[in-house]
Amino acid sequence: MFSHCFKYTFLDFIRNKTTIFWGVFFPMILGTLFNFAFMNIYESSSCFNEIPVAVVDGCDDGGIKGLIESMEESGSAKLLSARFVSEDEALKLLEESEVDGIIYDDMLEPTLIIRTGGGMNASIIKVFLDRYKTNASVIADIMESDPSRLPAVIEKMKAETVNHLELSNISNGNMNPFTTYFYNLLAMACLFVSMIGMLISINSQANLSSVGARVCLAPTSKAIQNIAGIIAAFVIFYTGIAIASAYLVFVLGIDFGISFGEILFINLFGVLFGISLGFFIGSIGRMTFNTKTAILLACTLGTGFLSGLMIGDMPAIIEKNCPIINRINPSRLISDSFYAINSYGWGERLAMNIIKLSIMSVVLIICGCLITRKRQFKSL
Amino acid sequence: MTPVVKIENLVKRYKEIIALDHFGLEINEGEIFGLLGPNGSGKTTTINCLLSLLEYDKGTIELFGKQMKPNSYDIKKNIGVIMQNVAVFDALTVRENIDYFCGLYISDKALKKQYVDEAIRFVGLEDFEKFYPKKLSGGLLRRLNIACGIAHKPKLIILDEPTVAVDPQSRNKILEGILELNKNGATIIYTSHYMEEVEQLCTRICIMDKGKSIATGTKEQLKKMIKNTETIEIEAADISESALEELKALPHAYEVSYNGEKLLIRFSGGKHNLIRTLEYLKENEIVFGRVYSELPTLNDVFLEITGKALRDNG
Ligand SMILES: Nc1ncnc2c1ncn2[C@@H]1O[C@H](COP(=O)(O)OP(=O)(O)OP(=O)(O)O)[C@@H](O)[C@H]1O
Ligand SMILES: [Mg+2]
Fold first, then answer.
1. Longest pairwise C-alpha distance within chain A
2. Is the Cα dihedral B104, B106, B107, B111 positive or negative?
3. pLDDT 10s per residue in chain A (380 long)?
4. Distance B206 CA to ligand 2 centre (A)
5. Residues with CB under 6 A from ligand 1
């Protein structure tokens, strides 16, 4: 019975041009559009990557001024364009968005004020300063233990700082802010498969489709038919998303910062969740097909929005105001899984994400099956 | 013998609309049972309650002597349903559709194949096995719909207006098919608002109106329930008021109507009503054209009991 249901749901889905379009071609098209859009932004933004900062002298003569000057001397692309000003002036500049941050240059404890919404530039300044602080404490230690080594260590540090900051800014590695948009894009593609998940439950309910009535009349458990449908949809649309991913990676040459195999691995959980979500929404309530479609679209785009599909800083904003959303938003869990592998490798953060996704998927499928099990309708 | 279908006191409301009002019926094995009623009289609602698709407010429904519930798989196994709407998968071919639905009932592969072959032959779709439903004409699509419902050889077959919007050729094929299924042992429930079909096909008929059963019986029994035994219709261009009065005074005539073109006289009993009428017309030198004499139809039964025609153009 299971294989019978699997076979025909499989055929039904794979021959359906609309579902194949949404499952496979839509992410490809969107990826292409994203890519073109970002290519331009990225090119223009990498021509102009000097970050304006204001540096306020502290009571002691701090080391930052020296560091910045030595970076300028080194002749390579300038990272920061610094203005040395008084505190009042600096605050004014920040208010007028003339600079992205203020560094209080104090040998012992340099501090930083960053413009809210400063985005990538603000983070770069912070990285710069953190690096500086670490070095400063190392220097302090050496001064106490063996001051004679100091000049050599400082020279080495200067060179490293310059390299580190320049390289990470220019290479396409972790710092490329657009990579996360593609993580979110794939997350959304996975959630779009929910439309197909919904079709499975629509096709087995008498009030939503005429074939549903036939299915309800058959002497076969609906759960078997539904699970067979879910697996068939999973096979087809997982393959679809894999093809779309391959297109993004190998044809468009988008750098996800992780291997293709790793992308495929995360897609597994994304597609599973997408189908489960759709199946669940399709099963609950007595809403019409159109209402359910609207709910699904809202879920897909809403969670995508919250995970930064439209505004890259969204997760950071949420993290500040309502972090729980970031912990449970499925779209965020998927995109964060890519990010987690990229930044931390196969570790706890990735594990938590995929465990949460799997649990949610299973719960949604079980609930959907239970709800539709012996259902009779008030109206057909 | 336990009836195949037994419905008692069934009440179904859609919010404030009462779709079934203490409706009841019994159907025995081997019958072709007709549910006849105008649009909105509750035929489809009856079927859906019977199949446990719809919740109902009151009443009991027994099939094959057992109470019907949504998970009564042993009952469902023996039922085949052809719904009012065509219910097939667009992305599956004719054969695949039939095979899919048949396979939900029959798990033995060889038997299933045999049943599917028979169903295809039965509805005459041999030449269209590989067609997708979109490529089929309306009539062929209906036939596919029927094949999907009966391929597993059910003991009870329910057809909800299977001939709506079907060309005469397909319609005849469908009606013949139903008779054949019945001959092979299936009990049939057939709903329609075409009284001619029901009259031609059904062994017993329940006439429904506004969710109530207003009369049940064989067509002869139903016709005996009413006063009318004969209706005479005459084309005549000019009949005076006084002539109409005299016509109404003819023996056994109980109703006369005239619209300037057609004269309609209803009789209750009597043997020579037509001859007497024509003699009267000749004696009074009234010119007339064609003449029809009709025995009562189910429409007359419906008309007399409810005071309105079964169908507006009926
Ligand atoms: N889903 C529904 N919601 C509200 N009212 C309904 C619904 N379905 C049917 N009705 C009402 O219930 C009554 C019976 O409808 P039903 O479909 O059973 O009639 P029917 O005899 O099958 O008519 P038809 O010949 O048009 O198929 C009608 O008055 C109809 O308006
Ligand atoms: Mg109906």
1. 90
2. negative
3. 889 999 999 999 999 888 888 778 887 887 888 777 777 665 555 544 677 788 887 655 556 777 677 666 655 456 677 778 888 888 888 888 778 888 887 766 777 777 666 667 777 777 777 777 777 777 778 877 877 777 777 777 766 655 544 444 433 344 466 778 888 888 888 888 898 899 999 988 888 888 888 988 999 888 888 999 999 999 999 998 999 889 888 888 888 888 899 999 999 999 999 999 999 999 988 888 899 999 999 988 888 888 887 777 788 888 888 888 888 888 889 988 988 888 888 888 899 999 999 999 999 999 999 988 877 788 87
4. 15
5. A 379-380; B 14, 17, 19, 37, 39-45, 84, 161, 193
Structure tokens at B1: 């013998």
Helix pair angle (A179-192, A194-202), 10° resolution: 10
What is the CA angle B194-B209-B10, rounded to 5? 120
Q: Using CA atoms, how far apart are residues A273 and A261, in angstroms rounded to an integer?
A: 19
Virtual CA dihedral for A323, A324, A328, A332, nearest 10 degrees?
-10
Structure tokens of A335? Answer: 């995109």
Query: Domains of chain B (ranges plus CATH)?
Result: 5-223 (3.40.50.300), 230-302 (3.30.70.980)
Helical spans, DSSP H, in B26-70 = 43-50
Nearest to A374 among B70, B74, B76 (CB): B70
**Alpha helices (runs of H) in A15-149, residue ranges in sequence order:** 17-20, 26-47, 64-73, 87-95, 119-145
Contact A379 B14 (CB under 8 A): yes
Q: Is B200 helix (H, G, I), strand (E, B) or coil?
A: helix
Considering only the beta carbons, identify the residue of B69, B85, B99 that sits closest to A210: B85
B148 touches A: beta carbon within 8 Å: yes
| Probe site for chain A from B47, B88, B89, B111 (most A CB atoms < 10 A) | B89
Residue B299: closest CA among B309, B287, B288, B289: B309
Q: Is-contact B12 B45, C-beta < 8 A?
A: yes
| Residue B207 main-chain phi, psi, to 5 deg | -95, 125
Q: Return d(Cα A154, Cα A169) in angstroms, integer.
A: 23
